[in-house]
Amino acid sequence: MADKELEVLKKQELETAAESTKGSPIFVPKVDIFEDKDALTLVIDMPGVPNEGLRVNLENNELSVYGKVNVEAPGEEVYSEFSVGDYSRSFLVSEYIDREKIDATLKDGVLRLRLPKVEAVKPRKIDIKAG
């Protein structure tokens, strides 16, 4: 049996050519994407983001997610291994997604986006008639 080392993943900071007017970093949240016959589900890790700090927008074919973190320090920082910052991530949405039925829920720092497929794309069983 091979030994496995614990791999520590650092938060990836958002890279953009634009200048930020905010002093704190903006991170790219980790995402898992699941598909079933009816929809795509995105599970996005956004710890520290309250409901009122979350923005989900769909413009043209781009679905963008932005989470503002409100963390108050309990005192003067002496040492920190945890970086606090907001979250931002964007996805291109195909014409196979029903834009009117997209829904979002945020619970315990995890955002779930459900992107239903349009009826024409859903797989269906074709009945065979005796001839």
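[next item in queue]
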Amino acid sequence: MSRFVENARNYSALLSNHINKENSVLFPLAERLLPPEKRNEMFEAFERIEEDRIGAGTHEELHKLLHKFKDLYLR
């Protein structure tokens, strides 16, 4: 196995664990503790930051690139 593939798999596992923790701990906690108005305000702020920092549509393009790498390296 190439070093790139090994590192990509390790990163993928790390990222999956991070996302699972967000989904199972952080987001449910925020849903319980924050009023809907505050959650909406935060969502809109994150959307603005994402667009200002990486640009509109970049997030989706990065997802496409990840799928391309998966198809290329993880057959």
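[queue empty]
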